[in-house]
Write a structure and sequence with these properties.
Helices cover 13% and strands 33% of the residues. By secondary structure, the protein is mostly beta strands. Helix 5 (565-571) crosses helix 6.
């Protein structure tokens, strides 16, 4: 049977536009990536009348995103740039009275903290810092701003080189590393030093350092109601490098002295938020039990750390970003429901009531769930919201619905976009329902069949949702139906669903994905002889795993995969947390267990032409993992190629528009090479081809 009518852009209607003098390309192309803009970090003023937000746009001459700060009038939707000159500007934060706006900006040097007086329009730089301030927070009296900042030190030394003659040009000195975590994706190899907490007068002056020592004490930070102390989350224990998933809420006084721990359980406690009367502190965290992924719960305690209690123990979702309501009787939080973020009010009795739905994140290449929000004194909620046809805009929530205030990508209305369909999937493994969506090719004709790309999310404890994706639109524009799903292990469906892959990944998520492919074929729109598969990170793992278990796909593209678990466990940037989170034993304690879950164990079965893609500076799933798969396929004479994206890591592989477009184009070129001619009429309904399963 055919599905219901294709979803239109119902939530964000697009105004009619005059036809251009000459017809442009009607489909979404890689060049369109340079024209996309996205709204992030919406900060509503205390009176609820104005929203400051960060607007990200791409500069075609530098091939980079620029960040500027804009203001939106909530009543009229009119907007204007606030700080949009040369440089980049971000993290706008209103003063408690709404008369000033703090932000971080740079015009070539180190990012600095600025304050703008809104009535006069005057701005002043109030810091001269060697590194970027982050997690900035106003004191309730408006006199100070707290922030975190990295402070370098000399690091470890072993021996010394001989004295260098004046004017000599010698090699760089030795790099001595003694840290457990010594590099991180996106940051590279760490410079020696630690993040500490500071405060600075809001009208400028010398900063005051509040925390010290050989541990990190970063943000987010919060102030006590009397503006005399700062709260932050950290692990200040001596063994902090090895006690993973551990942090406490600390209070440190402006008068000096050591930080005082307010929490004490085994597990992370973070994101402190002080009630308006100063008598209670809300925070999020969980009791760590060794699982790879656990849902954070909302807790409250008295200001001195006593009377701790969990408010969302009976709410089976991960909650984040607590913000007190002005009356002190409830707390706003963010959570993810079936791949779509929401804002809810949690009462002190544990009741949960949604106030905003449909939040979306600022990423563009793939439709990961996410979003951001802020709350005014009167309870107005500003959010980032979009859909499968629109990247995130700024919206305001009212009565549970969201009214869009910005229209950043109206040029997309000139394109014929791939339209979304919801797909009902039931896993053949245990009859469990699995969320899935399809993006149909532009000018989709239900009388025809189309090749299909199964695109798999990473994490694997993450979630896709009904959000915009440049990869999916580019694939659809090339004539493919794009299928994406949330197989078992995905977040936003409760802890039990996430736990289905606990210490068993890759596992029966394979069955979920094959069930989704069969459900897509059963619609009658898919050419069952033209199936392709790709995915990144955890999706790259599953891509390699799939082609090791079945030959039903004509070609594959495994992006930034993990191929051999033992070597990955000792080279990834989160190696210290790999055990016991992912495996109970270290690699040398259970080599067979590690091999069992390594896609390399199945490489002898692979017959599918497989492209391998990775960022050259990937420290999450290191380049050596991708190279192992590439070389194994080369040695077996299986068609393969290795695509390395220069100068980017795991999370930033699609951060520059030209590289994002080129990466998608390379994958499509690989698939097109093996794509058979599509049948031009509908095929009979059914389960499609059965999988050829390898031993």
């Amino acid at each position: 049977m055919l599905f219901a009518a294709l979803l239109a852009a119902a939530s964000f209607p697009v105004p009619a536009q005059a036809a251009p003098a000459s017809a442009p390309n009607r489909y979404f192309t890689g060049a369109d990536l340079f024209n996309l803009e996205v709204a992030t970090d919406p900060q509503i003023s205390p009176d609820g009348r104005t929203i400051a937000y960060v607007r990200k746009s791409n500069d075609i001459m530098t091939d980079k995103a620029r960040q500027t700060i804009w203001l939106v009038d909530v009543a009229t939707g009119q907007q204007r740039p606030l700080v949009a000159g040369a440089g980049t500007y971000f993290t706008p934060r209103w003063s408690p009275d709404g008369a000033r706006l703090a932000y971080v900006g740079t015009d070539g040097g180190a990012p600095q903290l600025f304050v703008r007086w809104m009535a006069s329009g005057d701005s002043a730089r109030i810091t001269g810092l060697p590194d970027s301030p982050d997690s900035i927070a106003w004191s309730p009296d408006g006199r100070r701003i707290a922030y975190g900042m990295f402070i370098p030190d000399d690091g470890a030394h072993l021996g010394m080189a001989p004295a260098k003659p004046e004017g000599a040009k010698w090699a760089d000195p030795l790099q001595v590393i003694d840290a457990v975590t010594y590099r991180f994706d996106g940051a590279g190899y760490f410079k020696p030093g630690y993040t500490q907490v500071f405060w600075v007068p809001a009208d400028g002056g010398a900063p005051t350092q509040l925390t010290f020592g050989a541990t990190n004490a970063g943000g987010p930070v919060a102030w006590t109601a009397d503006s005399r102390a700062v709260l932050f989350s950290a692990d200040l224990s001596k063994d902090w490098e090895r006690t993973i998933n551990e942090s406490e809420i600390y209070r440190v006084s402006l008068d000096g002295g050591a930080p005082v721990a307010l929490t004490s359980r085994r597990g992370p406690d973070a994101a402190p938020a002080v009630s308006p009367d100063g008598r209670q502190i809300a925070y999020v965290g969980f009791d760590y039990d060794g699982r790879a992924s656990q849902q954070a719960q909302l807790s409250v305690m008295n200001a001195d750390g006593s009377n701790r209690r969990v408010l969302t123990a009976n709410f089976d979702r991960n909650v984040t970003n607590p913000v007190w309501a002005a009356d002190g009787r409830s707390i706003y939080v963010q959570y993810d429901e079936r791949g779509s973020n929401r804002v809810a009010r949690v009462g002190l009795d544990g009741s949960v009531r949604d106030v905003a739905t449909g939040l979306t994140a600022s990423g563009l290449d793939r439709p990961y769930s996410g979003g951001e929000f802020s709350v005014s004194r009167g309870g107005a909620v500003a959010v980032t919201a979009g859909d499968q046809l629109h990247p995130s805009d700024v919206g305001i929530a009212s009565g549970g619905s969201v009214r869009r205030l910005t229209h950043l990508n109206e040029q997309l209305s000139a394109n014929v976009m791939g339209q979304p369909q919801k797909l009902n999937v039931v896993s053949t493994y245990d009859q469990r329902p699995i969320d899935a969506w399809m993006i149909m090719p532009p000018d989709f004709d239900p009388a025809k069949t189309y090749p299909l790309i199964l695109e798999i999310h990473g994490g694997p404890q993450a979630a896709y949702g009904p959000a915009f994706s440049t990869d999916h639109q580019l694939y659809a524009a090339d004539g493919y139906i794009v299928l994406y799903t949330n197989p078992r292990g995905s977040t936003s469906y409760g802890q039990a669903f996430t736990d289905l892959i606990e210490k068993d990944y890759p596992g029966h998520d394979y069955d979920d994905l094959m069930s989704a492919v069969d459900a897509a074929i059963a619609t009658g729109h898919v050419d069952q002889n033209n199936l392709f598969v790709t995915g990144g990170s955890g999706g790259g793992v599953l891509t390699a795993w799939i082609v090791g278990k079945t030959n039903r796909f004509r070609a594959a593209a495994s992006q930034k995969p993990v191929i051999e678990l033992a070597s990955f466990a000792l080279t990834t940037d989160f190696a210290a947390a790999f055990t016991p989170g992912w495996r109970k034993e270290r690699p040398w304690e259970d080599p067979q267990g590690y091999w069992k879950y390594s896609p390399l164990s199945l490489v002898g079965n692979i017959k599918t032409p497989t492209l391998v893609v990775v960022g050259s500076d990937d420290y999450r799933t290191p380049v050596s993992q991708a190279e192992q798969l590439y070389m194994a396929l080369q040695l077996r004479n299986i068609p393969t190629a290795l695509v390395k994206v220069p100068g980017v890591g795991h999370g930033a592989i699609a951060s520059r528009p030209s590289q994002a477009a080129a990466k998608a184009s390379a994958i499509l070129a690989w698939f097109d090479r093996y794509r058979a001619k599509t049948v031009a009429s509908s095929v009979p309904l059914g389960q499609g081809t059965s999988a050829v399963t390898a031993r």
